[in-house]
Amino acid sequence: MRTIDLLRLIFDNLRRQKGRVALTAIGVVIGTAAIVMLVSLANGMQQATMSQFATNGMLTTINVYPGDASQNMTGKPVSATDAGKGLLTSSVMRQIAAIPGIKDVIPRAGLESGAVLKSGKLENYAYILGLGVKDTSALDVKIAQGTGMLERGTAIIGGWMVKNFYNPATRPGENMEPQTADVLGKRVRLVLTRYTQDGEVRKTVELMVVGITKEVMSEYDSALLVSLDDVESWNEWSRGKRINRNFEGYPELLVKADSIDTVLSGASKIQELGYRSVTPMAFIKQIQNTFTMIQVVFGGIGAISLLVAAIGIANTMTMAIMERTREIGLMKAIGATNRDILGIFLGEAASIGFVGGLLGTALGWGLGKAFNGIFAGALSGFFPIPTVSAGVTVEMVNTPVWLVVFAIVFSTLIGLLSGLYPSIRAAMMEPVVALKYE
Protein backbone atom coordinates (compact mmCIF):
# COMPACT_ATOMS: atom_id res chain seq x y z
CA MET A 1 0.00 0.00 0.00
CA ARG A 2 1.33 3.39 -0.99
CA THR A 3 2.02 5.93 1.74
CA ILE A 4 -0.48 8.43 0.29
CA ASP A 5 -3.19 5.75 0.23
CA LEU A 6 -2.37 4.83 3.83
CA LEU A 7 -2.64 8.46 4.97
CA ARG A 8 -5.91 8.96 3.08
CA LEU A 9 -7.39 5.82 4.65
CA ILE A 10 -6.30 6.92 8.16
CA PHE A 11 -7.86 10.37 7.65
CA ASP A 12 -11.14 8.88 6.37
CA ASN A 13 -11.37 6.46 9.30
CA LEU A 14 -10.81 9.24 11.85
CA ARG A 15 -13.35 11.46 10.12
CA ARG A 16 -15.97 8.71 10.37
CA GLN A 17 -15.49 8.66 14.17
CA LYS A 18 -15.25 12.40 14.78
CA GLY A 19 -17.09 12.34 18.13
CA ARG A 20 -15.12 9.45 19.62
CA VAL A 21 -11.82 10.77 18.32
CA ALA A 22 -12.54 14.25 19.72
CA LEU A 23 -13.41 12.92 23.16
CA THR A 24 -10.28 10.76 23.21
CA ALA A 25 -8.08 13.62 22.02
CA ILE A 26 -9.37 15.90 24.79
CA GLY A 27 -7.48 13.80 27.34
CA VAL A 28 -4.27 14.28 25.34
CA VAL A 29 -4.99 18.00 25.02
CA ILE A 30 -5.38 18.40 28.78
CA GLY A 31 -2.27 16.38 29.59
CA THR A 32 -0.10 18.16 27.03
CA ALA A 33 -1.38 21.59 28.07
CA ALA A 34 -0.58 20.76 31.71
CA ILE A 35 2.97 19.74 30.81
CA VAL A 36 3.58 22.84 28.67
CA MET A 37 2.04 25.24 31.18
CA LEU A 38 3.72 23.85 34.31
CA VAL A 39 7.16 23.33 32.78
CA SER A 40 6.97 26.80 31.18
CA LEU A 41 6.14 28.27 34.60
CA ALA A 42 9.21 26.69 36.18
CA ASN A 43 11.36 27.71 33.19
CA GLY A 44 10.07 31.28 33.31
CA MET A 45 10.83 31.63 37.00
CA GLN A 46 14.33 30.27 36.37
CA GLN A 47 14.95 32.66 33.49
CA ALA A 48 13.60 35.61 35.48
CA THR A 49 15.85 34.78 38.43
CA MET A 50 18.88 34.44 36.13
CA SER A 51 18.01 37.74 34.44
CA GLN A 52 17.87 39.49 37.80
CA PHE A 53 21.36 38.33 38.75
CA ALA A 54 22.65 39.16 35.27
CA THR A 55 21.14 42.66 35.43
CA ASN A 56 22.94 43.33 38.69
CA GLY A 57 26.22 42.17 37.18
CA MET A 58 26.47 39.67 40.02
CA LEU A 59 27.18 36.59 37.92
CA THR A 60 30.79 37.64 37.32
CA THR A 61 31.41 39.09 40.81
CA ILE A 62 33.38 37.45 43.62
CA ASN A 63 33.27 38.99 47.11
CA VAL A 64 36.54 38.30 48.91
CA TYR A 65 36.92 38.64 52.68
CA PRO A 66 39.89 38.24 55.03
CA GLY A 67 40.70 34.61 55.69
CA ASP A 68 41.86 32.56 58.63
CA ALA A 69 45.61 32.02 58.55
CA SER A 70 45.24 28.46 59.84
CA GLN A 71 42.27 27.23 57.82
CA ASN A 72 40.80 28.27 54.48
CA MET A 73 37.36 27.59 52.99
CA THR A 74 38.51 24.40 51.25
CA GLY A 75 39.52 22.83 54.55
CA LYS A 76 43.20 22.62 53.60
CA PRO A 77 45.70 23.93 56.16
CA VAL A 78 47.57 27.05 55.06
CA SER A 79 50.60 28.54 56.74
CA ALA A 80 50.45 32.09 58.04
CA THR A 81 53.13 33.08 55.54
CA ASP A 82 51.34 31.59 52.53
CA ALA A 83 48.01 33.03 53.59
CA GLY A 84 49.44 36.49 54.11
CA LYS A 85 48.07 36.25 57.66
CA GLY A 86 44.61 36.31 56.13
CA LEU A 87 44.78 40.04 55.37
CA LEU A 88 43.66 41.61 52.10
CA THR A 89 46.70 43.77 51.42
CA SER A 90 47.99 45.30 48.19
CA SER A 91 50.27 42.32 47.61
CA VAL A 92 47.31 39.97 47.96
CA MET A 93 45.40 42.07 45.43
CA ARG A 94 48.24 41.52 42.96
CA GLN A 95 48.18 37.79 43.65
CA ILE A 96 44.46 37.60 42.97
CA ALA A 97 44.76 39.75 39.83
CA ALA A 98 47.31 37.25 38.47
CA ILE A 99 44.79 34.38 38.66
CA PRO A 100 43.68 33.32 35.12
CA GLY A 101 40.21 34.61 34.30
CA ILE A 102 40.30 37.53 36.77
CA LYS A 103 39.74 40.95 35.18
CA ASP A 104 39.60 43.47 38.07
CA VAL A 105 40.36 43.53 41.79
CA ILE A 106 38.73 46.49 43.55
CA PRO A 107 39.02 47.28 47.28
CA ARG A 108 35.91 48.40 49.13
CA ALA A 109 35.35 49.81 52.61
CA GLY A 110 32.36 51.08 54.54
CA LEU A 111 32.11 54.09 56.80
CA GLU A 112 32.95 53.19 60.41
CA SER A 113 31.03 56.06 61.99
CA GLY A 114 27.42 57.21 61.92
CA ALA A 115 26.33 59.51 59.12
CA VAL A 116 23.30 61.58 58.15
CA LEU A 117 22.92 62.93 54.61
CA LYS A 118 21.26 66.36 54.39
CA SER A 119 19.81 68.14 51.39
CA GLY A 120 18.11 71.39 52.31
CA LYS A 121 15.53 70.56 54.97
CA LEU A 122 15.52 66.86 54.08
CA GLU A 123 17.63 64.18 55.70
CA ASN A 124 18.45 60.51 55.20
CA TYR A 125 20.47 58.04 57.21
CA ALA A 126 23.30 57.16 54.86
CA TYR A 127 24.80 53.76 54.11
CA ILE A 128 28.25 54.78 52.83
CA LEU A 129 30.33 52.62 50.51
CA GLY A 130 33.83 53.65 49.48
CA LEU A 131 34.94 52.17 46.15
CA GLY A 132 38.54 51.94 45.02
CA VAL A 133 37.68 52.67 41.40
CA LYS A 134 36.85 55.83 39.49
CA ASP A 135 34.58 54.30 36.86
CA THR A 136 31.77 52.47 38.65
CA SER A 137 30.78 50.67 35.43
CA ALA A 138 33.61 48.28 36.31
CA LEU A 139 31.32 47.08 39.10
CA ASP A 140 28.25 46.99 36.83
CA VAL A 141 26.68 49.92 38.68
CA LYS A 142 23.73 51.01 36.53
CA ILE A 143 23.36 54.78 36.28
CA ALA A 144 19.88 56.22 35.68
CA GLN A 145 20.91 59.89 35.68
CA GLY A 146 24.21 61.72 35.66
CA THR A 147 27.56 59.99 35.49
CA GLY A 148 29.15 56.94 37.05
CA MET A 149 32.60 58.53 37.47
CA LEU A 150 33.77 59.01 41.07
CA GLU A 151 36.32 61.55 42.20
CA ARG A 152 37.21 62.80 45.67
CA GLY A 153 34.44 65.05 46.94
CA THR A 154 31.78 63.52 44.68
CA ALA A 155 29.09 60.93 45.32
CA ILE A 156 26.62 58.70 43.50
CA ILE A 157 23.34 58.16 45.30
CA GLY A 158 21.20 55.04 45.11
CA GLY A 159 17.92 55.19 43.20
CA TRP A 160 15.93 53.93 46.20
CA MET A 161 17.78 56.14 48.67
CA VAL A 162 17.10 59.35 46.74
CA LYS A 163 13.34 58.69 47.00
CA ASN A 164 13.37 58.07 50.75
CA PHE A 165 14.40 61.33 52.36
CA TYR A 166 12.35 62.71 55.25
CA ASN A 167 11.79 66.08 56.91
CA PRO A 168 12.91 65.94 60.57
CA ALA A 169 10.83 69.05 61.30
CA THR A 170 7.57 67.31 60.36
CA ARG A 171 4.96 67.71 63.09
CA PRO A 172 2.55 64.98 64.20
CA GLY A 173 -0.38 64.81 61.80
CA GLU A 174 1.55 66.27 58.86
CA ASN A 175 2.61 64.32 55.81
CA MET A 176 5.15 61.72 56.93
CA GLU A 177 5.57 60.10 53.52
CA PRO A 178 9.14 59.69 52.16
CA GLN A 179 10.18 62.44 49.79
CA THR A 180 12.39 62.53 46.71
CA ALA A 181 15.33 64.88 47.12
CA ASP A 182 16.49 67.02 44.20
CA VAL A 183 20.21 66.35 44.62
CA LEU A 184 21.63 65.61 41.17
CA GLY A 185 24.32 68.14 40.29
CA LYS A 186 23.99 69.78 43.70
CA ARG A 187 26.03 69.82 46.89
CA VAL A 188 24.80 67.87 49.89
CA ARG A 189 26.07 67.75 53.45
CA LEU A 190 27.21 64.58 55.14
CA VAL A 191 27.23 64.86 58.93
CA LEU A 192 29.64 62.33 60.47
CA THR A 193 29.41 61.35 64.14
CA ARG A 194 31.93 59.72 66.42
CA TYR A 195 31.82 59.05 70.15
CA THR A 196 34.70 59.81 72.49
CA GLN A 197 35.19 59.96 76.24
CA ASP A 198 34.25 63.62 76.07
CA GLY A 199 30.98 62.83 74.31
CA GLU A 200 29.65 63.10 70.77
CA VAL A 201 31.78 64.78 68.11
CA ARG A 202 30.44 65.75 64.70
CA LYS A 203 32.03 66.65 61.42
CA THR A 204 30.31 67.99 58.30
CA VAL A 205 31.65 67.39 54.81
CA GLU A 206 30.22 68.52 51.50
CA LEU A 207 29.78 66.27 48.48
CA MET A 208 28.73 66.93 44.91
CA VAL A 209 26.13 64.37 43.74
CA VAL A 210 27.13 63.44 40.19
CA GLY A 211 24.88 60.45 39.56
CA ILE A 212 21.81 58.45 40.59
CA THR A 213 21.80 54.68 40.21
CA LYS A 214 19.09 52.70 38.50
CA GLU A 215 17.05 50.50 40.85
CA VAL A 216 17.96 46.91 40.01
CA MET A 217 17.43 45.29 43.42
CA SER A 218 21.09 45.48 44.48
CA GLU A 219 22.79 46.93 47.54
CA TYR A 220 23.70 50.01 45.51
CA ASP A 221 20.02 51.02 45.42
CA SER A 222 20.18 52.17 49.03
CA ALA A 223 23.81 53.29 49.27
CA LEU A 224 25.78 56.48 48.88
CA LEU A 225 28.82 55.63 46.75
CA VAL A 226 31.94 57.71 47.29
CA SER A 227 35.63 57.31 46.52
CA LEU A 228 37.63 54.99 48.73
CA ASP A 229 40.04 57.84 49.57
CA ASP A 230 37.17 59.87 51.05
CA VAL A 231 35.97 56.98 53.21
CA GLU A 232 39.51 56.23 54.37
CA SER A 233 40.01 59.85 55.51
CA TRP A 234 36.65 59.84 57.33
CA ASN A 235 37.49 56.54 59.02
CA GLU A 236 40.85 57.96 60.13
CA TRP A 237 38.97 60.90 61.68
CA SER A 238 36.59 58.47 63.37
CA ARG A 239 39.45 56.38 64.79
CA GLY A 240 41.67 59.32 65.57
CA LYS A 241 44.67 57.71 63.87
CA ARG A 242 46.00 56.86 60.43
CA ILE A 243 45.02 53.65 58.64
CA ASN A 244 47.72 51.48 57.10
CA ARG A 245 46.04 48.95 54.77
CA ASN A 246 49.34 47.16 54.19
CA PHE A 247 49.32 46.40 57.90
CA GLU A 248 45.62 45.66 58.59
CA GLY A 249 44.32 44.98 55.08
CA TYR A 250 41.07 45.96 53.43
CA PRO A 251 37.76 44.70 54.86
CA GLU A 252 36.61 43.46 51.45
CA LEU A 253 37.66 43.07 47.83
CA LEU A 254 35.34 42.98 44.84
CA VAL A 255 36.78 40.71 42.18
CA LYS A 256 35.41 40.72 38.63
CA ALA A 257 35.89 37.67 36.45
CA ASP A 258 36.16 37.74 32.65
CA SER A 259 32.98 35.68 32.23
CA ILE A 260 30.56 33.45 34.13
CA ASP A 261 32.61 30.47 32.93
CA THR A 262 35.63 31.57 34.98
CA VAL A 263 33.86 32.74 38.15
CA LEU A 264 33.75 29.44 40.02
CA SER A 265 37.34 28.50 39.16
CA GLY A 266 38.50 31.97 40.20
CA ALA A 267 36.65 31.73 43.52
CA SER A 268 38.22 28.31 44.13
CA LYS A 269 41.74 29.67 43.45
CA ILE A 270 41.13 32.54 45.89
CA GLN A 271 40.04 30.07 48.57
CA GLU A 272 43.20 28.07 47.98
CA LEU A 273 45.15 31.22 48.81
CA GLY A 274 43.48 31.20 52.22
CA TYR A 275 40.75 33.81 51.82
CA ARG A 276 36.99 33.59 52.00
CA SER A 277 35.30 34.03 48.66
CA VAL A 278 31.59 34.22 47.94
CA THR A 279 30.08 34.33 44.47
CA PRO A 280 26.40 34.34 43.50
CA MET A 281 27.27 31.92 40.69
CA ALA A 282 27.64 29.14 43.27
CA PHE A 283 24.09 29.81 44.45
CA ILE A 284 22.92 30.08 40.84
CA LYS A 285 24.11 26.52 40.23
CA GLN A 286 22.01 25.36 43.17
CA ILE A 287 19.05 27.39 41.93
CA GLN A 288 19.37 25.85 38.46
CA ASN A 289 19.40 22.35 39.94
CA THR A 290 16.35 23.20 42.04
CA PHE A 291 14.43 24.57 39.05
CA THR A 292 15.40 21.52 37.00
CA MET A 293 13.87 19.30 39.66
CA ILE A 294 10.77 21.51 39.72
CA GLN A 295 10.45 21.14 35.95
CA VAL A 296 10.73 17.36 36.26
CA VAL A 297 8.07 17.29 39.01
CA PHE A 298 5.74 19.60 37.08
CA GLY A 299 6.29 17.55 33.93
CA GLY A 300 5.51 14.39 35.89
CA ILE A 301 2.21 15.87 37.05
CA GLY A 302 1.24 16.56 33.45
CA ALA A 303 2.47 13.11 32.39
CA ILE A 304 -0.06 11.53 34.74
CA SER A 305 -2.82 13.21 32.72
CA LEU A 306 -1.23 11.87 29.54
CA LEU A 307 -1.13 8.39 31.04
CA VAL A 308 -4.89 8.56 31.61
CA ALA A 309 -5.28 9.81 28.04
CA ALA A 310 -3.17 6.88 26.80
CA ILE A 311 -5.58 4.45 28.43
CA GLY A 312 -8.41 6.28 26.64
CA ILE A 313 -6.60 5.93 23.29
CA ALA A 314 -6.03 2.22 23.89
CA ASN A 315 -9.71 1.79 24.76
CA THR A 316 -10.85 3.72 21.67
CA MET A 317 -8.63 1.67 19.36
CA THR A 318 -9.76 -1.60 20.93
CA MET A 319 -13.42 -0.67 20.43
CA ALA A 320 -12.67 0.44 16.85
CA ILE A 321 -11.05 -2.90 16.05
CA MET A 322 -14.02 -4.81 17.44
CA GLU A 323 -16.43 -2.72 15.37
CA ARG A 324 -14.32 -3.04 12.22
CA THR A 325 -13.37 -6.72 12.47
CA ARG A 326 -15.23 -7.66 9.28
CA GLU A 327 -13.68 -4.66 7.55
CA ILE A 328 -10.25 -5.96 8.54
CA GLY A 329 -11.11 -9.41 7.16
CA LEU A 330 -12.33 -7.85 3.91
CA MET A 331 -9.13 -5.79 3.50
CA LYS A 332 -7.02 -8.91 4.04
CA ALA A 333 -9.15 -10.87 1.61
CA ILE A 334 -8.46 -8.35 -1.17
CA GLY A 335 -4.71 -8.34 -0.55
CA ALA A 336 -3.90 -6.14 2.46
CA THR A 337 -0.89 -7.44 4.40
CA ASN A 338 -0.43 -7.61 8.17
CA ARG A 339 1.93 -4.65 7.80
CA ASP A 340 -0.75 -2.61 6.07
CA ILE A 341 -3.31 -3.31 8.79
CA LEU A 342 -0.75 -2.53 11.49
CA GLY A 343 0.15 0.74 9.76
CA ILE A 344 -3.50 1.82 9.50
CA PHE A 345 -4.36 1.38 13.17
CA LEU A 346 -1.00 2.62 14.45
CA GLY A 347 -1.41 5.66 12.22
CA GLU A 348 -4.86 6.35 13.67
CA ALA A 349 -3.60 6.07 17.25
CA ALA A 350 -0.55 8.25 16.54
CA SER A 351 -2.76 10.82 14.77
CA ILE A 352 -4.97 11.14 17.84
CA GLY A 353 -1.85 11.74 19.94
CA PHE A 354 -0.44 14.20 17.41
CA VAL A 355 -3.61 16.26 17.07
CA GLY A 356 -4.15 16.24 20.84
CA GLY A 357 -0.52 17.24 21.41
CA LEU A 358 -0.71 20.03 18.85
CA LEU A 359 -3.89 21.49 20.37
CA GLY A 360 -2.63 20.94 23.92
CA THR A 361 0.65 22.73 23.17
CA ALA A 362 -1.25 25.66 21.70
CA LEU A 363 -3.57 25.71 24.74
CA GLY A 364 -0.65 25.57 27.19
CA TRP A 365 1.16 28.35 25.33
CA GLY A 366 -1.99 30.47 25.29
CA LEU A 367 -2.59 29.94 29.01
CA GLY A 368 1.00 31.01 29.65
CA LYS A 369 0.49 34.23 27.71
CA ALA A 370 -2.75 34.89 29.58
CA PHE A 371 -1.00 34.25 32.89
CA ASN A 372 1.74 36.72 32.01
CA GLY A 373 -0.75 39.34 30.93
CA ILE A 374 -3.30 39.01 33.72
CA PHE A 375 -1.71 37.55 36.83
CA ALA A 376 1.97 38.60 36.66
CA GLY A 377 1.20 42.02 38.11
CA ALA A 378 -0.83 40.55 40.94
CA LEU A 379 1.96 38.11 41.83
CA SER A 380 4.78 40.64 41.59
CA GLY A 381 4.37 41.35 45.32
CA PHE A 382 5.14 37.71 46.11
CA PHE A 383 7.82 37.24 43.44
CA PRO A 384 9.91 40.45 43.20
CA ILE A 385 10.85 39.90 39.56
CA PRO A 386 10.99 42.86 37.15
CA THR A 387 8.99 42.72 33.91
CA VAL A 388 11.92 44.14 31.97
CA SER A 389 15.56 43.24 32.68
CA ALA A 390 18.49 44.71 30.71
CA GLY A 391 16.07 45.71 27.95
CA VAL A 392 14.66 42.17 27.63
CA THR A 393 11.09 41.36 28.62
CA VAL A 394 11.00 38.88 31.50
CA GLU A 395 8.03 36.51 31.63
CA MET A 396 7.01 34.39 34.59
CA VAL A 397 5.75 31.74 32.15
CA ASN A 398 8.29 31.17 29.39
CA THR A 399 7.76 28.45 26.78
CA PRO A 400 11.03 27.44 25.06
CA VAL A 401 11.02 25.99 21.55
CA TRP A 402 12.38 22.66 22.74
CA LEU A 403 9.35 22.22 25.02
CA VAL A 404 6.93 22.78 22.13
CA VAL A 405 8.70 20.17 20.00
CA PHE A 406 9.01 17.75 22.91
CA ALA A 407 5.32 18.04 23.88
CA ILE A 408 4.11 17.31 20.35
CA VAL A 409 6.55 14.44 19.79
CA PHE A 410 5.88 12.97 23.24
CA SER A 411 2.08 13.05 22.84
CA THR A 412 2.41 11.46 19.38
CA LEU A 413 4.62 8.74 20.86
CA ILE A 414 2.09 8.19 23.66
CA GLY A 415 -0.64 7.70 21.05
CA LEU A 416 1.57 5.34 19.07
CA LEU A 417 2.42 3.20 22.10
CA SER A 418 -1.19 3.19 23.29
CA GLY A 419 -2.39 1.83 19.97
CA LEU A 420 0.40 -0.71 19.61
CA TYR A 421 -1.33 -3.69 21.27
CA PRO A 422 -4.74 -3.19 19.60
CA SER A 423 -3.00 -2.69 16.24
CA ILE A 424 -1.02 -5.92 16.61
CA ARG A 425 -4.26 -7.76 17.44
CA ALA A 426 -5.87 -6.35 14.31
CA ALA A 427 -2.88 -7.27 12.13
CA MET A 428 -2.79 -10.87 13.43
CA MET A 429 -6.48 -11.62 12.70
CA GLU A 430 -7.23 -14.50 10.35
CA PRO A 431 -9.25 -13.26 7.36
CA VAL A 432 -11.77 -16.11 7.51
CA VAL A 433 -12.42 -15.61 11.22
CA ALA A 434 -12.68 -11.84 10.80
CA LEU A 435 -15.21 -12.15 7.96
CA LYS A 436 -17.41 -14.42 10.09
CA TYR A 437 -17.34 -12.00 13.07
CA GLU A 438 -20.79 -10.65 14.01
Describe the structure.
It is a single chain. By secondary structure, this protein is an alpha+beta fold. The protein folds into 2 domains: about 200 residues, no CATH class; about 140 residues, no CATH class. Helices cover about 50% and strands about 20% of the residues. It is built from 13 helices and 14 strands. The strands form 2 sheets. Strands 1, 2, 3, 4, 5, 6, 7, 8, 9, 10, 11 and 12 form a 12-stranded mixed β-sheet that branches. A two-stranded antiparallel sheet has the order 13-14. A hairpin with a 2-residue loop joins strand 13 and strand 14. Helix 2 packs antiparallel against helix 11. It is elongated and about 115 Å long.
Relevant terms:
alpha+beta, 48% helix, two-stranded antiparallel ribbon, 14 strands, single chain, 438 residues
Quick gist of this model?
The chain has 2 domains: 3-55 and 285-436, no CATH class; 108-248, no CATH class. The protein is built from 13 helices and 14 strands.
Q: What oligomeric arrangement do these chains adopt?
A: single chain
User: Could you list the spans in which at least 5 consecutive residues all have pLDDT below 50?
Assistant: 69-84, 381-392
What value does the average pLDDT take? Answer: 82
Q: Which bin fits the share of residues in helices? A: 40-55%
Topology:
Blueprint: H1 3-16, H2 18-55, E1 61-65, H3 90-97, E2 102-110, E3 114-119, E4 122-125, E5 128-131, E6 143-146, E7 154-157, E8 187-196, E9 199-213, E10 224-227, H4 228-239, H5 245-248, E11 252-257, H6 263-272, E12 276-278, H7 280-323, H8 325-333, H9 338-374, H10 376-379, E13 388-389, E14 392-393, H11 401-418, H12 420-427, H13 431-436
Parallel strand pairs: 5-10, 7-9
Antiparallel strand pairs: 1-11, 1-12, 2-5, 2-11, 3-4, 3-8, 6-9, 7-10, 8-9, 13-14
